[in-house]
């Protein structure tokens, strides 16, 4: 097998394939893959590869590469100077490179952010969860799960040609600019439920500015602060952007508090913030070329008229800067509604891009009966697995049904989902396997303290939850001391309702006993850094962060790994078939350890010699509902006191200007 020597790697060059790791959204694994899939696929076509063959994505500055045998390459994406043996060559065309010659890809200039390099036959790389795409935050895929480094050696693959090498035609090339228009579909969470009509008008009328703090997880934007149609998110959090955790779509415009972020291919699969619009699959390539200082305008389009993401030529409409639109779907993102077969619960079907339908049950409250309905629907869909189904991702009271829009139209999917609903059993019949997983918790761990300090230095120093999240939790819930927070957290038994919040098997879980449900709000703006396996509370939910990354939950401590980074090597507590520790409907029970003890436990887990105590059992919704009935009076008294404390905290926020509308652009 021939090799490629990396003489200069560039600041962030990674191996990617297309469409990436698309079938693990439900456990918090993002698809990764090229952020500009169009330029990537065209590069492969230029050298005769299959469109999805592994190649390189390079950010801002490309690499210098040397080949040990004659080969053919192509460079696409942002316009750059490309040379072979010091002589200028063209982008968007097959380039012959002789053995020993150096391919030098320069720096992006006035427009565009990323370049793509395809090599005839492809690049060999680690296959992990059905893809070779690099996810650097998760440390897997590509070259050892990281960006390339100077001195690396890559193996050239020898996949058979999918077609002849050829020049990419001018009508096929994407049009790059500094003033972008992005086609968006309305939904899933728009006006008038979450945003005011004026907010949506602002969204379409504003030229948002791309913030420098943007990457493959998401593109942060500067724009007007929403007015909001609600005063808060109820049990989901004090800010009106907060909702009960639900599945996201790549390309969703996610309002993390008042800050809009376009979620990228390395972004989270699950979270508790509203998304009023979603970039169409055909236009998501543009997100990979947005650079700091560029402007972005959102253009609403009808789903029935969106371009196909499968197309690469003029049918994709990528060679035009302007988005063609006859207007938006006039449904505020709500595709339809029905009721459950027993007539007790409203079912709402929301558009989440042109490739997802978000099925929501009931009112915006925390009710385990709604999660039971989500489970029943997921089982029903899995039993049939219709053509075009990609993944099912459950949230607290919702199920995201993702399809290949080129195989199953959204209207067809909607009709089928309504048929499925009519066939589902009563939620009260739910009895599922439910293990109790005993995990260590280092209370107020030094790593979480460091994250708060970083937030105060780099993001916001005057937030009500700073400088100590645990004191904020105490105040929010009307407790006498932080010792009460400690007692409640360790006494609680947390039921896992979702995985992947945030990333890599990270659970979103809720105490089974409502008296243990400490409610907080999420950071606004979100943190830019969270230590791996930090434990936090947001709204009524507990989360274990699966890896380092952004976040918004209020810290209480840190625990051991919930993702086996050794996979496919075995690790104690983890099933050999997959790298995630927890399952839906598991129960998490904490036991206290010191910070030093936790470091030892984490080292043991990382080496595959740790221990996780797991006890088998079941969860019965009927039994849980009987528990609630038996303890209703006491639960009501305690919850009422907590709600009074939150109202007082909210008033303090309001009096202090926390909810005041800011003029100008916010991020």
From TrEMBL:
Residues 645-667 are annotated as: Disordered. The keyword Acyltransferase does not apply. Keywords: ATP-binding, Hydrolase, Lyase, Nucleotide-binding. Gene3D superfamilies: 3.30.1360.40, Cyclophilin-like (2.40.100.10). NCBIfam families: urea_amlyse_rel. This is Urea amidolyase. One of its GO terms (molecular function) is hydrolase activity. The keyword Lyase applies. Residues 645-655 have a biased composition (Basic and acidic residues). InterPro entries: CT_A_B, CT_C_D, Cyclophilin-like_dom_sf, PxpC. Pfam families: CT_A_B, CT_C_D. Residues 26-316, 347-582 form the Carboxyltransferase domain.
């Amino acid at each position: 097998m021939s090799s490629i020597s990396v003489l200069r790697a560039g600041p962030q060059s990674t191996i990617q394939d297309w469409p990436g790791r698309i079938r693990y959204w439900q456990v918090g694994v993002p698809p990764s893959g090229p952020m500009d899939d169009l330029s990537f696929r065209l590069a492969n076509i230029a050298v005769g590869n299959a469109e999805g063959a592994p190649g390189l994505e390079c950010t801002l500055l490309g690499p210098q590469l040397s080949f040990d045998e004659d080969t053919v390459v192509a460079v696409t994406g942002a316009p750059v100077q490309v040379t072979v043996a010091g002589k200028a060559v063209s982008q968007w065309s097959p380039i012959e490179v002789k053995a020993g010659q150096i391919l030098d890809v320069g720096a992006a200039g006035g427009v565009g952010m990323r370049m793509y390099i395809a090599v005839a036959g492809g690049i060999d790389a680690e296959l992990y969860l059905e893809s070779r795409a690099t996810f650097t935050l998760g440390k897997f895929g590509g070259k050892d799960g990281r960006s390339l480094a100077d001195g690396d050696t890559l193996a050239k693959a020898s996949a058979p040609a999918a077609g002849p090498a050829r020049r990419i035609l001018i009508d096929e090339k994407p049009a790059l600019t500094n003033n972008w228009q992005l086609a968006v579909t309305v939904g899933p969470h728009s006006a008038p439920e979450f945003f005011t009509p004026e907010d949506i008008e602002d969204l379409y009328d504003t030229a948002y500015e791309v913030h420098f703090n943007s990457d493959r997880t998401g593109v942060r934007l500067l724009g007007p602060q929403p007015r909001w149609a609600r005063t808060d998110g109820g049990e989901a959090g004090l800010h009106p952007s907060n909702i009960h955790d639900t599945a996201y779509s790549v390309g969703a415009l996610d309002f993390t508090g008042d800050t809009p972020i376009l979620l990228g291919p390395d972004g989270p699969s699950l979270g508790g913030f509203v998304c009023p619009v979603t970039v169409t699959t055909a236009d998501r390539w543009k997100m990979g070329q947005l650079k700091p200082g560029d402007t972005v305008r959102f253009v609403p389009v009808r789903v029935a008229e969106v371009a196909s993401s499968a197309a690469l030529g003029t049918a994709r409409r990528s060679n035009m800067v302007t988005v063609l639109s006859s207007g938006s779907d006039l449904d505020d993102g709500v595709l339809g509604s029905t009721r459950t077969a027993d007539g007790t619960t409203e079912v709402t079907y929301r558009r989440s891009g042109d490739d997802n339908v978000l099925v929501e049950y009931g009112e915006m409250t925390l009710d385990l009966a709604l999660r039971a309905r989500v489970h029943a629907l997921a089982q029903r869909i899995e039993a049939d697995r219709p053509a075009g189904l990609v993944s099912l991702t459950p949230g607290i009271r919702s199920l995201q049904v993702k399809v290949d829009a080129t195989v199953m139209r959204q209207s067809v999917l909607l009709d089928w989902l309504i048929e499925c609903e009519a066939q589902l059993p009563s939620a009260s019949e739910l009895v599922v396997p439910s293990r109790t997983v005993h995990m260590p918790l280092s209370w107020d761990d030094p790593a979480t303290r460091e994250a708060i300090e970083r937030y105060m230095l780099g993001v916001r120093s005057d937030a009500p939850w700073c400088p100590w999240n645990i004191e904020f939790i105490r105040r929010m819930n009307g407790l006498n001391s932080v010792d009460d927070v400690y007692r409640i957290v360790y006494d609680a038994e947390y039921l896992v309702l979702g995985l992947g919040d945030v990333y890599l098997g990270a659970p979103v879980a809720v105490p089974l006993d409502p008296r243990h449900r400490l409610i907080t709000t999420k950071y606004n703006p979100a943190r830019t850094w969270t230590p791996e396996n930090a434990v936090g509370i947001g709204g009524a939910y507990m989360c274990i962060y699966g890896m380092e990354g952004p976040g918004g939950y209020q810290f209480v401590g840190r625990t051991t790994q919930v993702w086996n980074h050794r996979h496919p090597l075995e690790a104690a507590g983890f099933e050999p078939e997959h790298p995630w520790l927890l399952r839906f409907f598991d129960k998490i029970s904490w036991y206290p350890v010191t910070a030093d003890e936790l470091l030892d436990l984490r080292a043991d887990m990382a080496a595959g010699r740790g221990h996780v105590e797991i006890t088998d059992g079941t969860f019965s919704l009927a039994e849980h509902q009987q528990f609630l009935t038996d303890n209703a009076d006491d639960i009501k008294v305690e919850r009422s006191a907590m709600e009074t404390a939150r109202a007082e905290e909210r008033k303090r926020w309001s009096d202090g200007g926390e909810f005041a509308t800011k003029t100008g652009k916010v991020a």
